[in-house]
Amino acid sequence: MRSTPRPWILATLCISAMLALQGCEPPNATRPSTPASNGASVSEPIALPSAPPVEVSTLPPEISSPISPPSDKPLPAEGDVMTSGEVLDRLRARLSTPTCIVGPNNTRWRHKYAGYPQHFADEVQATLPMMLVVLDELEKRKMPGEFALIPIVESWYRPDVHSFGGAAGMWQMLDETARNNGATVIRGYDGRLSGFDATQAGLTYLGKLHGIFNDWRLTAMAYNSGEYRLMRTMSPEELAERSAGGVHYRRPEGLSGTTYEYVSKMRALTCLLAQPQRQSIPLLTTVPITHWIAYTMPADVTSLDDLARRLDTDPDILKAFNRGYKNGRVVAGAPRTLLVPASTRSHWASAAAQATPQPTQVATGAQAANAAAMPSTSNASAAATTTKTDPPANDDPPDDQDRAVKTHVVARGETLDRIARRYHVSADKLRAWNHLGRRARVSPGQKLKLEP
Questions:
Q1: CA angle 448, 450, 452 (to 5 degrees)
Q2: Is the pLDDT of residue 275 over 60?
Q3: How far apart are CA 179 and CA 165, in angstroms?
Q4: What pTM, to 2 d.p., does this model score?
Q5: Hey, which of 197, 225, 347, 447 would disulfide with 191, CB 3.0 to 4.6 Å?
Q6: Which residues of 193-264 form beta strands (DSSP E)?
C-alpha cells in the first residue's frame, strides 16, 4: 500500500518552490513604457541589462529637522546650451530639505529605480532637455522643485505615452483636466502631447492644488487621486488653515495605497537626484543640454517643417518636442506658441518676414492668349495670378557632401530605442539610416548615423 504524503510536507515543498522562483525573478523596474506597433505606448517596461542589480543600502538620516522650503533667490540667466550638471543643480536649488529620509519605502523605491545605476543615469540624462523646460516655469511661478519629478513618475518625460484610462502625455492628463487648465485639445492638435502646452496646463493645475493644500506631498497626492478625494479627508477648518499655511503636514487617512506610493516614489527620486554620489549613481555633469524656450510662430506658418526651415533647425527634433501638432501640421484653432531651441533666436526676425515657398505655376497657352487679349491695365494682375517666382537658389538645402554626418557610438547597455529617444528621432529612422532590419540589435562600439 502506497503511503499518502502528509499535508504539512506538501505545504513546505510548495513554499520552498515559490521562494526559489521569487529569488530568480529580477526586481520590478520603474522605467518608461515602450511604443506598440500602432504608435501608442503600452506599459511593458524596457528590458534591463543582464547584470544583477546593485543593492541600495539604507542611508543615515541627512538631518532630523522638519521639511523646509527652498530658497526663492533668483538664478542667473541661462544660455542657449547648458550642461547636465547645471540642469540638475537648478533642480536641487528648488528641492525642500531634507532631500533624503529614512524608511523602508524610501529604500525600496530607490532600489527599484536605481538598482541598475548606469541604466538609471542614462534614463535621467534623456529627460534633462524637457526637465529644463519645466524648471524654467517652476522658477517663474516659485513652485517646489519636487513637481519636476512628477513627469518621471508618470511617464519618464515621454510626450507620446497614452494610458488605458485615457490620460496622455508626459503629465498624463485627461483631456477634460487639460482643457480646464488652459490646454487645447481639438481635432488635429492635442496639447497634452506638446511640451509647452502640457507643461503650462500641468503646472497651472498643480498651482491650484498647491494653493489648497500648501504642501508638495499633499499636492502630489491630490494630483494622483483627485483634489476632492483628498479634501474629504480633512475638515473645513483644516482646509482653511492649510490654504493660509498654518498647519503642519499630516498624512491623510483613507486614500489608496497607490496614492501613498506616489509620494514615496517622488521621495526616492528626490534622494537619488539630489545626492547621487551617496548611492553610486554615475550622473554625468558635462553633457551639453539644448535649452528649449517658448516662441510664437508667424501667422502664415502652416507646418512645423516650414517653421524648421525658417529657423534653420532640425524638423524631426522640432516635432519631437511639439508632438501635439498631428503630423506636424498647424491646424486652425491650434496654439501658435511652441518650444524651439534657444539658439534659433537669431532667426526669429527673418522667420517672420519669410513667406512659405509656393510651387511655380506656369501659364498654359490658352491662359497666355487670354492674358494678352485683356486690357493693358489688367495685364500685370493677370500675370501675377498665373506665374510665381521660384525661391532663390541660395535657399536650396546644402549638398550632403558639404556637411559632416552626425554619428553616435553605442555604449554598453544601450538599445536602439534608447538612442532614438536621446536624440529625439524615431527608431525606424535610425534603422533606415543605418540599414538595420526590424529585429537587428546594436552592439557596444557600433557607430550609428543620426541623420540621412
A1: 105
A2: yes
A3: 17
A4: 0.68
A5: 197
A6: none
- Where helices occur in 233-375 by DSSP H, the ranges are 236-243, 257-274, 304-311, 315-321, 348-353, 365-373
Q: Is a pLDDT exceeding 70 seen at residue 332?
A: yes
**Shared fold status for 290-355 and 403-449:** yes
What is the SS3 assignment for 361?
coil
206 and 192 Cβ atoms separated by less than 8 Å: no
In the numeric block, the cell 494610458 is attached to: 163
Report whether 355 contacts 300 (CB < 8 A).
yes
For residue 327, give every residue at least 6 positions away whose Cβ sits within 8 Å of its Cβ, in sequence order, or none: none
Q: How far is residue 47's CA from residue 114's CA, in Å, rounded to a whole number? A: 14
Q: Classify burial at 377, counting beta carbons within 10 Å of its beta carbon; exposed 0-12, middle 13-18, buried 19 or more.
A: exposed
Tens-digit pLDDT profile for residues 104-113: 999 999 999 9
Q: Which amino acid is at 402?
A: D
DSSP state of 246: -
> How confident is the model at residue 429, as a pLDDT?
84
Tell me the CATH number of domain 403-449, given options 3.40.50.300, 3.40.50.150, 3.10.350.10, 3.30.70.360. 3.10.350.10
Q: Which residues contact 45 (CB under 8 A, 6 or more apart)?
A: 29, 30, 31, 33, 34
Contact 294, 338 (CB under 8 A): yes
Q: Which residues are catalytic?
A: 154
- Measure the CA–CA gap between 137 and 438, rounded to whole angstroms: 39
pLDDT value for 433 = 83
Residue closest to 110 by CA, chosen among 33, 29, 48: 29
Going through 36-78 in order, the beta strands assigned E by DSSP cover 41-45
d(CA 315, CA 301) in angstroms, rounded, equals 14
263, 223 in Cβ contact below 8 A? no
Amino acid identity, position 401: Q
